[in-house]
Design a protein that fits this description.
Layout lengths: L1 H9 L12 H10 L12 H6 L10 E2 L3 E6 L5 H9 L3 H4 L9 E7 L2 E7 L7 H9 L3 E7 L6 H13 L2 E7 L8 H9 L13 E4 L8 H15 L2 E2 L6 E10 L3 E10 L2 E2 L3 E4 L2 E9 L5 E2 L1 E2 L3 E8 L8 E5 L2 H14 L14 H6 L1
Parallel strand pairs: 2-4, 2-5, 5-6, 6-7
Antiparallel strand pairs: 1-8, 3-4, 9-10, 9-17, 10-16, 11-15, 12-13, 12-17, 13-14, 13-16
Helix pairs in contact: 6-7
Bound molecules: guanosine-5'-triphosphate and magnesium ion.
Amino acid sequence: VTALIKKLFLAGKMVNVNSELPFDEASEIALEYNCIAEEEEKVDVIEELLKEDEEDEKDMVSRPPVVCVMGHVDHGKTSLLDAIRQTKVTSGEAGGITQAIGASVVDVNGQTITFLDTPGHEAFTAMRMRGAQSTDIAILVVAADDGVMPQTIEAINHAKAAGIEIIVAINKIDKESANIERVKQELTEYELIPEDWGGSTIFCPVSAHTKEGIDNLLEMILLTADVLELKANPNRKARGIVIEAELDKGRGPVATMLVQKGTLHVGDYIAVGASHGKVRAMTNSRGERVTEALPSTPVQIQGLNTVPDAGEIFMAVDNEKEARTISETYISQGKEKLLADTKQRMSLDDLYSQ
Ligand code: GTP
Ligand code: MG
């Protein structure tokens, strides 16, 4: 060290024992000592992760559509999903208000559709945005007796910003005060023009209560999905997005994640933003234990060391060390960088300035 410092000092460089030398300089000096320096490859972990990995077309197989249900508060999003799933989630909600994104998988004549239910209350803008960003199709629910409202417009903006297809479901047509034509008229202002008016947006009048029009809505979703030719490679390490996460008293951190690529298995090591861990247990949207989850499948997983943020990207990696390194790097490089892949890298400001 003293010899090197002296040498550099004589060459006009004030350095100390902690200084760093550029690679070129270091390799020149190394040569004087008959050594060949090799540059260590510096990998920016986050950049690596953000890279959309190239997929070979031949590995791609079709995957189910992921559909998010959006719209103004109380326009009947959860009721519509209840009608589709034949469940009664609405009646169990506190104050009848959805406060989190709920994921469910529905089988329609042998074809699968993954639904994300989003809250309509104005306080949940971030959830609506996340819903739109992780899906292929948005079902815009507009109550026929109420028409276009502030969060209807917000939902349209989220869907447009995320570049996803919008199918309009005019709900509550069973009500006497329902006015389907008025809703159609109001939506033309937002460039959602029905096909029978010369536009290209699919409008489905429905009633979550009488179930009128629901079959037609499902058919339209599958038709739209067909055109999109949605595909993913199931034979690779899983990658996807965190929909919701919380700390459970008994089970520790639990996260609902949507697998977007690859297959996630129990036993896989994963990195999720600042958290990491090994998938200890996995349950599907019906609460059943599963050992693997294919693309477009939402699953709840246990085994993370901390609760990840919703919207975070998760990825399966080779081993625990890699998972830990990624989360540590993530913490040190700042989370903003990962909180988004290209599609997700937009702020609300962008959204509203459009
Ligand atoms: P948030 O999640 O809080 O935004 O509400 P939501 O859009 O999920 O609405 P929800 O399904 O909770 O329904 C709101 C109210 O509208 C409930 O009282 C439902 O019973 C009622 N409702 C929903 N769909 C229909 C329908 O088709 N017809 C009639 N008459 N009422 C409906
Ligand atoms: Mg709801």
